[in-house]
């Protein structure tokens, strides 16, 4: 806990003590103390509505309660300079800010781990992207990858034990279509007549895979029987597509701890086991030759078929087995990041979790809404280069990874995102990722100048007293709280917002103060050390988002 957090907790404790001293409530009646940071500095460093919260309990007017609290607060112990009562009973606190300078050595001592919370002893699994391995990742997958990876970084820094997982949909009809498409392209590469199947994959990658196979195997595969040849093409096509997916994701800064194959559920007894478990718990019934899941028992709008009349499974059945497998691995919480088209699927999966004997809250689903690309002020529907949907790879080549990672995380994932490609590559303050990265580069430039002046970490930090310096220190102190809030609310944009606010506070300080002054080396040394803390904090924040922190721009 840093000095800002300690001071806040201390103030909360002193407010509780004042409530007890003033006989406004008993200990078990005191509501949670809520402290907010007012937007207007004229309203102090912190404000509380405790007087309004106590009105019903104390049976007094909030303003009178506020006066009682003010009279009973130990200002020295709480580090308060001044208390104002505003409006119907808001209490505004103006703090003695000398404690803020303690943040500088705290940040420098913690380094890359500044902002990290203590271990919470809770295992969370986050499953995201999970695109069919049959082609290139599109913009929805790209946004899901950025949001998922950033959320995992946030949860990790908030003290959770996090595992990233990709569910490979390698058992459905799409893989059959990939297999027969590859077989057709192989035949064509050998110069033989072979029509592409109606639902086949027309992409250039499959054409290339066919040519590569001819180079590798010649016409040997024609000698195999149909079953062997099919199995070969299936394995080869899947391996090549996954290789491409992994390469693109790795370049995008996203790596998974586990790649889970849907086929493995069929090869093991996991689907049979989960069906038996649901049956033993009385959660299934037979009707019209099919096996049904009583999902309405758990809030779904209708019961769902698990085994169709022809004996085949619905999509839901292996999904239930997969979630049973996840939970059997000891995760306390599962977070699935799904596209908006899966919204209606959530109630049935939560129903399945509950029917298996778990708490429905153990499964959370974050929805990723669509991305609209804009270039030259116009909405882009297709790639100008290929005439097809714009892919993750194309956008990386066009605007760069940093802009993508930042832009995809800077809005709530359940809201539509308009991605302005021109803004993403512009070197201007209107581009938020440039604005934050420029703040880091500016600090690095100041530090280089400081080193040339011979400044060291041996500094008198009590010389840091100006309003702009205090604003900067307060903002630095907010990182742990921002991470904790982002983790609790699953809000990646809380971190991009914080990064932007920190950059703005730094630029404001830089424009108002002479940071380094050869005629005042003592103050320069103190500010040099402050700038080191700023650099570390920006660096840590950008690392969470998956964005680089350049030293020169």
From TrEMBL:
Which Pfam families does this UniProt record tie to the protein?
Arg_tRNA_synt_N, DALR_1, tRNA-synt_1d
Provide the DALR anticodon binding domain boundaries: 436-553
Q: Which SMART domains match?
A: Arg_tRNA_synt_N (SM01016), DALR_1 (SM00836)
Q: Which UniProt keywords apply?
A: Aminoacyl-tRNA synthetase, ATP-binding, Coiled coil, Cytoplasm, Ligase, Nucleotide-binding, Protein biosynthesis
Instruction: Establish whether keyword Protein biosynthesis is in the entry.
Output: yes
Recorded catalytic activity of this chain's protein: tRNA(Arg) + L-arginine + ATP = L-arginyl-tRNA(Arg) + AMP + diphosphate
Note the superkingdom of the native organism.
Bacteria
Question: Where do we find the motif 'HIGH' region here?
Answer: 131-141
Protein family per UniProt: Belongs to the class-I aminoacyl-tRNA synthetase family.
Q: Kindly provide the name given to this protein in its UniProt entry.
A: Arginine--tRNA ligase
Species in which this protein is naturally found: Guptibacillus hwajinpoensis
């Amino acid at each position: 806990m840093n000095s800002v957090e300690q001071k806040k907790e201390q103030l909360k404790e002193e407010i509780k003590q004042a409530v007890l001293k003033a006989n406004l409530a008993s200990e078990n009646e005191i509501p949670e103390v809520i402290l907010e940071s007012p937007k207007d500095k004229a309203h102090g460093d912190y404000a509380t509505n405790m007087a309004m919260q106590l009105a019903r309990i104390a049976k007094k007017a909030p303003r009178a309660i506020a006066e009682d609290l003010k009279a009973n607060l130990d200002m020295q112990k709480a580090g308060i300079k001044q208390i104002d009562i505003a409006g119907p009973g808001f209490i505004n606190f103006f703090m003695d800010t000398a404690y803020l300078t303690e943040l500088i050595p705290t940040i420098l001592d913690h380094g890359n781990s500044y902002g990290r919370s203590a271990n919470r002893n809770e295992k969370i699994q986050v499953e995201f992207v999970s695109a069919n391995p049959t082609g290139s990742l599109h913009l929805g997958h790209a946004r899901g990858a950025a949001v998922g990876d950033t959320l995992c970084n946030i949860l990790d820094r908030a003290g959770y034990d996090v595992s990233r997982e990709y569910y490979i949909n390698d058992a459905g009809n799409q893989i059959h279509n990939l297999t027969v498409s590859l077989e057709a392209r192989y035949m064509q590469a050998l110069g033989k007549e072979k029509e592409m199947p109606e639902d086949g994959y027309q992409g250039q990658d499959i054409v290339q895979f066919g040519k590569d196979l001819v180079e590798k195997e010649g016409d040997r595969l024609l000698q195999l029987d149909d079953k062997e040849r099919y199995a070969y093409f299936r394995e080869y096509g899947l391996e090549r597509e996954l290789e491409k997916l992994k390469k693109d994701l790795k370049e995008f800064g996203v790596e998974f701890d586990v790649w889970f194959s849907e086929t493995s559920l069929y090869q093991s007894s996991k689907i049979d086991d989960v069906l038996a478990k649901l049956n033993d718990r009385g959660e299934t019934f037979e009707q019209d030759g099919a096996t049904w899941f009583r999902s309405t028992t758990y809030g779904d709008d209708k019961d769902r078929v698990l085994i169709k009349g022809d004996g085949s499974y619905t999509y839901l059945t292996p999904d239930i087995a997969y979630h049973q497998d996840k939970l059997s691995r000891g995760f306390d919480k599962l977070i699935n990041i799904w596209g908006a088209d899966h919204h209606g699927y959530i109630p049935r999966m939560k129903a399945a979790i509950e029917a298996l004997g778990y708490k429905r809250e153990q499964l959370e689903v974050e929805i990723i809404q669509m991305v609209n690309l804009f270039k030259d002020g116009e909405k882009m529907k297709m790639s100008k280069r290929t005439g097809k949907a714009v892919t993750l790879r194309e956008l990386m080549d066009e605007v760069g990874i940093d802009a993508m990672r930042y832009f995809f995380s800077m809005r709530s994932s359940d809201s539509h995102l308009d991605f302005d490609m021109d803004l993403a590559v512009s070197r201007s303050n209107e581009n938020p990722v440039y604005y934050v990265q420029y703040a880091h580069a500016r600090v690095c430039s100041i530090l280089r100048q400081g080193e040339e002046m011979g400044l060291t970490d041996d500094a008198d930090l009590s010389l840091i007293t100006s309003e702009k310096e205090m604003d900067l220190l307060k903002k630095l102190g907010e990182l742990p709280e921002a991470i904790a809030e982002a983790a609790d609310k699953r809000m990646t944009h809380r971190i991009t917002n914080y990064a932007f606010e920190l950059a703005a506070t730094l630029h404001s300080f830089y424009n108002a103060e002479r940071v380094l002054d050869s005629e005042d080396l003592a103050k320069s040394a103190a500010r040099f050390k402050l700038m080191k803390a700023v650099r570390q904090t920006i660096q840590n924040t950008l690392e969470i988002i998956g964005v680089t922190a350049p030293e020169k721009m």
